[in-house]
């Protein structure tokens, strides 16, 4: 069975999600900086992440756009989504001393539990994309 159409669908979903995440951060940079300043990690990390996150997210979009780099894009998507999912899971399961605020865009409006479910979905489709691409090698 040709699984590549599924890889294309997964790639499109991930491209839309990463592009939206990066662009919304950049378009609302002031709000994104303020959101990062209220997170559970030190402020200096937020000052780095304000630029690193959108750049990495756009780099993942670039990797997913081309068949030669798609597998790297899938692994990068999985890694980033796993980190984001663990972080959001910390908010859902009250692991942090204080409640961090969501970082803008649609995700800020979802609430932590829905955000967690969305993150799990994108983490899983990244894994599926990896499995499909690796099995096709």
UniProtKB/TrEMBL annotation:
Record flagged with keyword Kinase? no
Per UniProt, residues of the Methylamine utilisation protein MauE domain are: 6-131
UniProt superkingdom: Bacteria
One cellular component term (GO) for this entry is: membrane
Species lineage? Bacteria, Pseudomonadati, Bacteroidota, Sphingobacteriia, Sphingobacteriales
Quick check: keyword Transmembrane in the entry?
yes
Give the source species: Pedobacter caeni
Q: Which UniProt keywords apply?
A: Membrane, Transmembrane, Transmembrane helix
Its main subcellular localisation, reduced to a broad class, is: membrane
Q: What is this protein called?
A: Methylamine utilisation protein MauE
Membrane topology, from the record: Multi-pass membrane protein
Subcellular location as annotated: Membrane
User: Membrane-spanning residues where?
Assistant: 6-27, 48-66, 72-96, 116-133
Question: What Pfam families would the database entry show?
Answer: MauE (PF07291)
Q: Which GO terms describe its biological process?
A: methylamine metabolic process
């Amino acid at each position: 069975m040709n699984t590549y159409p599924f890889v294309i669908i997964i790639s499109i979903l991930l491209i839309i999600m990463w592009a939206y995440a990066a662009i919304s951060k950049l378009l609302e940079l002031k709000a994104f900086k303020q959101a990062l300043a209220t997170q559970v990690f030190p402020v200096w990390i937020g000052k780095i992440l304000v630029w690193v996150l959108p750049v990495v997210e756009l780099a993942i979009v670039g990797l997913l756009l081309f068949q030669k780099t798609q597998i790297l894009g899938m692994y990068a998507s999985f890694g980033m989504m796993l980190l984001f999912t663990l972080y959001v899971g910390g908010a859902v399961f009250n692991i942090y001393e204080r409640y961090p605020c969501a970082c803008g865009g649609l995700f800020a409006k979802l609430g932590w539990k829905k955000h967690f479910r969305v993150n799990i979905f994108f983490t899983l489709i990244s894994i599926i994309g990896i499995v499909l691409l690796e099995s096709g090698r």
